[in-house]
Amino acid sequence: MRFRRLIWTSMIIVDTWALLYYGRPTFFFLLVFLVAVFVLSAAELALAAFSVRLDSDPNERLPTKYESFHYRLTVRSAFFPLLHVRVSCKHGHTSTTSREKQFFHLSATKTRPAVLKIPLVSEYAGLYELKVDSVEIYDLFGFFCFSVPLRKALRNHTAYIPVFPIIRRFSKAPRVFSELIPPMRKTPERSENVGVREYRPGDDLRTVNWKRTARTGTLYVKEYEKGSQDFHIVYLDLTRPSVTGREATVVTDCLLSQATDLSAFLLRDQRPVTILSHSDANDEQCSILHAGHLEKAKRFLSTRRFVGTVPEDYKDRLSAIWEVGKNSLSVFSSALSPESLSFLSRFSGDLATVTLFMITQPGHESEASSVIEYFSKMGVYCISIRPEDTEESEVDR
């Protein structure tokens, strides 16, 4: 763009010299043409700056890890016949310090808006951030460029897209769920069968009522009375990892994916799940009764925001919730000190019903081992999970 202006300005200077030296009419008309193009380009840019409008149109269907998806931006012209726009976008996970940057060029008219589909794909679960970094308009000849204020062009120039984790039949570490069963079985079993209902996707086939199914031709399962102790609590410690960049994203992805796997496993076993996590958006709890509502759990987990420190008043509420129901509890954390999980020491109940899944941060294996040792002495059942192992199993899936 600077080179074009330089060439055009040089042509005006040379033509002006030729006009003054030779005085021919040809040079005069050429000078008028060159100056007119220059002035019209500047005027076009000024008018286009007041005409450009952008609208965001995210897809309603939320993506899953490794699944390609698009984010739509529509460029409109309020009154000017033609717009030439360059849009710059940065995108990546909220836990990543550096994000990928892309540029897109498009043209829009007053009668035909230009639709920009930004192709995206995420290798990790959680909130994926897409930020429109800049919107620039330029004239037809490419002499001038003007950066439009984002607040004027696009009201919401930052979008947070929840990316769902992949659900497997079992965890990447196969022993995780087999070792989880013994402490869960220490809680009272569910009540006796109180009726039957039609089969829902995800129900355990071991509970099928074969007599009713054979008589009606419709698949029915036995329904059990759900007491307060049948609910299993899954708590997410959303303390932000100490590592940064891609390593932080890997840790948060592992935590969310493991919590999703556990929730799916419990729901298939007809054990209702309540997922708890700290949140400033008044959405700290998500209760799921059966596997047919697993989509609700995935949406809840993929919208979690990690924080610097979980407030102490929330830990007090968490202790009260657990002690009232005496539910079995699973905790997912990547903390490097017992302080982040200090609410466990406030429990007066049986800590044998508590399972701690410790997501080990790369380079902080010794701190994670110290946390596991601390809570193991208190009677908490602890399982260590390394993100690099789970990541390799996903690549081989």
Biggest sheet, open or closed, and with what strands and sense? 6 strands, mixed
Any idea of the CATH topology of the largest domain?
A: Rossmann fold
Shape annotation: elongated
Q: Which segments are poorly predicted (pLDDT under 50) over 5 or more consecutive residues?
A: 185-191
Can you write the helix and strand succession as a string? HHEEEEEEEHEHEHEEHEEHHEEHEH
Proportion of residues in β-strands: 25-35%
Widest sheet: strand ordering: 13-12-11-14-15-16
- Derived from helix and strand composition plus strand pairing, the structural class reads alpha/beta
Fraction of residues in H or I helices:
25-40%
Rg, Å, rounded: 30 Å
Number of domains: 3
Query: Would you state the CATH class of the largest domain?
Result: Alpha Beta
Total strands: the figure is 16
Number of helical runs?
Answer: 10
Short account of what is shown:
This protein is α/β, with parallel strands linked by helices. Helices cover 34% and strands 28% of the residues. Helix 1 runs antiparallel to helix 2 and helix 6 packs across helix 10.
Commentary on this structure:
By secondary structure, the chain is of the alpha/beta class. It has three domains: 1-164, Immunoglobulin-like (Sandwich); 175-190 and 228-395, 3-Layer(aba) Sandwich (Rossmann fold); 193-225, no CATH class. The protein contains ten helices and 16 strands. The protein has a six-stranded mixed β-sheet with strand order 13-12-11-14-15-16, with helices on both faces. Strand 11 (232-236), helix 6 and strand 12 form a beta-alpha-beta unit. Helix 6 packs across helix 10 (387-395).
